[in-house]
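step=encode ok
step=design start
structure_in=
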C-alpha cells in the first residue's frame, strides 16, 4: 500500500484566484493517499474562509487557524500535526502537476533516498504564463557532502532546480519532523532547514521531472523592504557559522551566509538604518577574506567582498 504524504501549505494574504488554484491542484492529484494541512497564518483577508470551504468538500484537508506569526511558525505547526510518512511543502500561490505526488513518491522508493528534488517551472503572476523550458539533463544522485556543497553555493545541477527552497521536494517524515524552521529568520529560513536536513541523510536525488510551478511575485520575501526582523536573521546566520565552525563544509557555509548578508545589506542601506547597517557590515568584514580565498565561492559574492573594502 502506498504511504501517506502530508502536504503542508501555509496561507497568508494570497489573492483568492491563486489560493483556489493551488488547493485545487492538490485535490486533483493522481496520488490519492495524502493529507493537505493548511495553516491560515492569521490572514486578514478571506483566505481562512476559502480554506474552510475546501475542507467541507474533501475530508483529506485539515485547516488550522493561528495568529499571524510568519511562515516558519506556520510550517512548524504543520510539521507538528503531519501524520504522513512523507512530507512536502507547497506555497499557497504555486501550482503542481497532477502527477507531482506520484512521481516524487515513486522516485523516493525507487532510489531508496531520504530526499527527492524535482525541477520547477516559473509562473508569471499577472497572466499565468508558464516558462516551461525543456530540460536535457538526466536524474542525478549526490552524496551528503556534495548535496551540502550544492546547497551552500547554489550551484544547481541543472536549470530550474531550486536546491535552497523547501518546496519542490519530498522529505521523509521521520527526519523532517526532527527539524524545526528557525522562527527568528525572515529570509533564508528554507536554506537553514535544508542544511539541517541534509546533514541527516546519505544521499539526495535530483529529478529531470519538472513538476512544480513557482509563481514569481513582486511582494515575495526576497523582494520585501527592510524590516527589524532582518537583523535577527543576520544574528541567526552568525550563530549558524559558529555552530558549524568545525564542520568540513564550514567555508562553504560562510560563503552562503555572506551572500545572504549582502542581500540584506542592500535592503538596509535603502532604509537608512545606520545601526543595523553597521552590524551587517561587521559580519561581512569578519568573513569576507574567507570568501575571497574560497575557490568554490560564487564569483559575484567574491566581487562584493572585494568591493566591501572600499566601504567605511
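sequence_out=
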Amino acid at each position: 500500500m502506498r504511504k501517506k504524504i502530508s502536504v503542508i501549505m501555509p496561507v497568508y494574504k494570497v489573492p483568492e484566484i491563486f489560493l483556489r488554484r493551488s488547493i485545487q491542484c492538490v485535490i486533483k492529484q493522481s496520488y490519492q493517499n495524502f493529507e493537505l494541512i493548511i495553516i491560515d497564518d492569521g490572514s486578514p483577508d478571506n483566505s481562512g474562509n476559502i480554506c474552510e470551504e475546501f475542507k467541507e468538500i474533501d475530508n483529506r484537508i485539515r485547516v488550522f487557524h493561528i495568529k499571524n506569526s510568519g511562515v516558519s511558525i506556520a510550517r512548524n505547526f504543520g510539521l507538528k500535526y503531519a501524520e504522513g510518512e512523507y512530507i512536502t511543502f507547497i506555497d499557497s500561490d504555486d501550482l503542481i502537476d497532477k502527477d507531482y505526488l506520484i512521481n516524487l513518491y515513486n522516485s523516493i522508493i525507487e532510489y531508496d533516498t531520504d530526499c527527492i528534488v524535482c525541477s520547477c517551472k516559473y509562473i508569471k503572476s499577472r497572466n499565468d504564463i508558464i516558462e516551461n523550458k525543456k530540460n536535457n539533463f538526466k536524474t542525478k544522485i549526490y552524496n551528503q557532502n556534495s548535496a551540502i556543497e550544492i546547497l551552500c553555493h547554489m550551484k544547481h545541477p541543472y536549470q530550474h532546480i531550486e536546491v535552497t527552497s523547501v518546496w519542490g521536494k519530498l522529505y521523509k517524515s521521520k527526519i523532517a519532523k526532527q527539524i524545526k524552521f528557525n522562527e527568528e529568520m525572515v529570509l533564508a529560513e528554507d536554506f537553514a532547514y535544508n542544511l539541517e536536513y541534509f546533514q541527516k541523510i546519505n544521499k539526495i536525488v535530483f529529478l529531470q521531472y519538472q513538476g512544480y510551478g513557482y509563481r514569481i511575485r513582486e511582494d515575495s520575501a526576497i523582494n520585501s523592504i527592510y524590516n527589524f526582523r532582518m537583523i535577527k536573521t543576520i544574528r541567526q546566520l552568525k550563530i549558524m557559522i559558529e555552530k558549524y565552525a568545525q564542520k568540513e563544509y564550514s567555508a562553504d557555509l560562510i560563503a552562503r551566509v555572506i551572500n545572504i548578508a549582502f542581500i540584506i545589506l542592500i535592503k538596509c542601506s535603502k532604509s537608512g538604518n545606520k545601526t543595523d547597517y553597521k552590524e551587517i557590515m561587521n559580519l561581512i568584514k569578519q568573513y569576507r577574506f574567507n570568501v575571497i580565498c574560497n575557490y568554490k565561492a560564487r564569483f559575484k559574492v567574491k566581487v562584493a567582498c572585494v568591493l566591501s573594502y572600499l566601504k567605511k
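step=design ok
step=annotate ok -> The CA atoms of residues 38 and 63 lie 5 Å apart.
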